[in-house]
Each structure stands twice: as C-alpha cells, then as structure tokens.
Amino acid sequence: MKLTQNELEFLSAWAREEWEPACYRLPAHRLQLAHGVPGAQLLTFIKAWTQIEQKKDQDILEAATTEELRWPWDTVEGFRDRLAKAEGALRLLLTPRG
C-alpha cells in the first residue's frame, strides 16, 4: 500500500503539528476533528508508510509540504478502505515468517 500524494501531505502536516503545544488549533488537526478520526488511525497510515518505504518514524515530518492542506479522503468509505489496506499491509509486514 503506497500513500497518495494528498495522504502524504496531510499526514506529514499532521505529524509536524503533533509537536506543537496547541496542535488541535492547527489545520491538520482541525480537519481530523471535523471528520471524527482518532489520531491512532492516522498513526496507522504513518506506520504503514514507514514500514513499506523503509523510513524512520521522524521522516514523515519532512515527507511533504503544502500550502493548501486538505482532507485527503473523499468519503468515509474511502477513508475506511484505505485504513483497512494500511492495517493489512502492517499485518503482512510485521507477522513473523517461519
């Protein structure tokens, strides 16, 4: 599962905001709240990205920058589908082989 450019831009902005003391006043977090998505679900996308792309967790901070931040998923179903793909990718990648 590869993140779309819009997903990467949003998740990168969200991760950078996490370092701010009033992050829930910032654009990515306001979008997160407006869509009722728990932060843990966004972390699932980030963790899948780090595993698939063989990146360090902090690499998401510099993965993308954009002036026009928008919610990258057009529908609730689209979000759920992408989340399920990220969860599935993580399961495959993190399951011990033997």
Question: What can you tell me about this protein's structure?
Answer:
It is a single chain. By secondary structure, this protein is mainly alpha-helical. The protein has one domain (5-93). 56% of the residues lie in helices and 0% in strands. The protein contains four helices and no strands. The two termini are 23 Å apart.
User: Could you give a short account of the major beta sheet?
Assistant: none
Proportion of residues in extended strands: under 5%
Counted beta strands: 0
Give the radius of gyration: 13 Å
* Tertiary shape: globular
Total individual domains: 1
N→C terminal distance: 23 Å
Question: Helical percent range?
Answer: 55-70%
Mean pLDDT across residues: 94
Structural class: mainly alpha
From N to C, what is the helix and strand string?
Answer: HHHH
Low-confidence stretches: none
Treating each run of at least 4 consecutive H or I residues as one helix, how many helices? Answer: 4
Question: Can you describe this structure in just a few lines?
Answer:
Helices cover 56% and strands 0% of the residues. The chain has helices at 5-17, 27-34, 39-53, 76-94.
Give the SSE layout.
Blueprint: H1 5-17, H2 27-34, H3 39-53, H4 76-94
Helix pairs in contact: 3-4
